[in-house]
Specification:
By secondary structure, the chain is an alpha+beta fold. It has twelve helices and 14 strands. It has helices at about 15-25, 40-45, 80-85, 100-115, 155-165, 185-200, 210-225, 240-250, 280-285, 290-300, 325-340, 355; strands spanning about 5-10, 55-65, 70-80, 90-95, 120-125, 135-140, 165-180, 200-205, 255-260, 265-275, 305-315, 345, 350, 365-375. Strands 1, 2, 3, 4, 5, 6, 7, 8, 9, 10, 11, 12, 13 and 14 form a 14-stranded mixed sheet that branches. α11 links the parallel β11 (about 305-315) and β12. α1 packs across α2 (about 40-45) and α6 crosses α11.
């Protein structure tokens, strides 16, 4: 008789690498799945490396069917968010599973039982430790190429969620924009008006060390301000900020980054974009070696890359809905055109966040993916 077994996974490099490699194996030959960079993703699960463990605890599980890996899930408790909301809420994330009801039920039972043992009364997901981790289960857009910053999953995933009694908690949408031949006239006019009215200017850097020194901390503190009221937001701590400055600012293509400052050189807006790494990660199968590094480097700097990923836009609350986004893209669009990018991929946007979606109104675009966070009472 076929049996399902659940085993806890220790947060070690070896165990978490095996955990992640199982997930990648589920999408062999899938043309839309983009694997994570394993060496980078492993760090997320290591308490001695990821500063999110200062206020989070987690337990990962692996399911086995007849002795073979069949599914993985991580249950997370973010105490910082729970203190902000007054809820006893667990998260599940980093989910991968075969299409097998017994496996899926056993996997979620393990995560739910662990959450109950910690006094939690509800569970949501897929969510990561914080908002800079992957979140949102794909429910529409399975035939669209994924991105480095988002989750791809098989169409049977949401069917199992509904079968188990999980309900929709929120949705995110994503857009693909066509990069125009020039900055739209109306966009440029708005940018010029906003620049004069608020005495703002854009900054460009050619030195990674200088941007870290000048605006590294300010950039992530701005993200905290701009995203504070968004769904499930977990404010970045000082330790996290230093961690992400080191992790991310050293690998950005600086011409694809735009900073907006006021007359006092205070940062009021930022737009971070990167050439798409999707095809490069597929070619390297999530590994740097032997040739993964070459594919990533080529994606970053060669003109054959036709897609740019809009990783995030953050604007100080007092400047939101005042046209500052036009200033960002009036600066970035010429960069995209010069580099031959034909399409721009938005990151996740909450479905009800109409003001964010308005920034795409002057572009030819299509909403091509939808993601969902599910919730269940324990």
């Amino acid at each position: 008789m076929a049996t399902v077994e659940i085993r806890p996974v220790s947060p070690t490099k070896r165990e978490m690498r095996r955990y992640l490699e199982f997930g990648i194996s589920l999408y062999k030959d899938n043309p839309y799945y983009v694997p994570p960079l394993i060496i980078d993703e492993v760090e997320t699960f290591l308490p001695k490396v990821n500063p999110a463990f200062d206020f989070c605890e987690a337990q990962s599980f692996m399911a086995y069917r007849d002795g073979k890996p069949a599914g993985v899930i991580t249950a997370i408790i973010n105490r910082q968010v729970n203190e902000r909301t007054g809820r006893k809420q667990a998260r599940f994330g980093y989910l991968e599973m075969i299409d097998d009801q017994e496996v899926v039920d056993a996997l979620f039972k393990a995560a739910e039982d662990w959450a109950r043992s910690k006094g939690m009364t509800e569970i949501i997901g897929p969510m990561g430790f914080t908002d800079l981790d992957h979140e949102g289960m794909l429910v529409d857009g399975f035939d669209e190429l994924g991105t480095m910053a988002t989750i791809y999953n098989h169409p049977y995933y949401p069917k199992h969620m509904e079968r188990m009694g999980y309900e929709r908690d929120t949705d995110w949408v994503e857009f693909r924009m066509t990069v125009p031949d020039k900055v739209p006239d109306k966009y440029q006019r708005i940018a010029d008006i906003v620049r004069r009215k608020y005495n703002l200017r854009t900054l460009k850097y050619t030195s990674r060390s200088k941007i870290k020194a000048d605006y590294g901390e300010a950039l992530f503190k701005l993200i905290n301000e701009a995203y504070d009221n968004l769904y499930g937001y977990s404010p970045l701590t000082d330790r996290q900020i230093q961690y992400y400055i080191k992790k991310y600012l050293g690998v950005l293509r600086l011409e694809c980054l735009c900073l907006i400052v006021d007359e006092h050189d205070t940062l009021v807006g930022v737009g971070i974009s990167i050439p798409s790494f999707s095809r490069a990660l597929q070619k390297g199968h999530g590994r740097l070696f032997p040739m993964g590094w070459y594919h990533l480097l080529k994606a970053m700097y060669k003109r054959h890359n036709e897609i740019v990923d809009l990783m995030l836009v953050a604007v100080k609350p007092e400047y939101q809905n005042k046209g500052v986004n036009a200033l960002l893209f009036a600066d970035l669009l010429p960069v995209y055109i010069r580099n031959g990018y034909r399409w721009a991929e938005s990151n996740l946007e909450l479905e009800e966040n109409a003001s964010v979606q308005l920034q795409w109104q002057y572009f030819e675009r299509r909403q091509h993916r939808r993601r969902r966070a599910y919730r269940k009472n324990l």
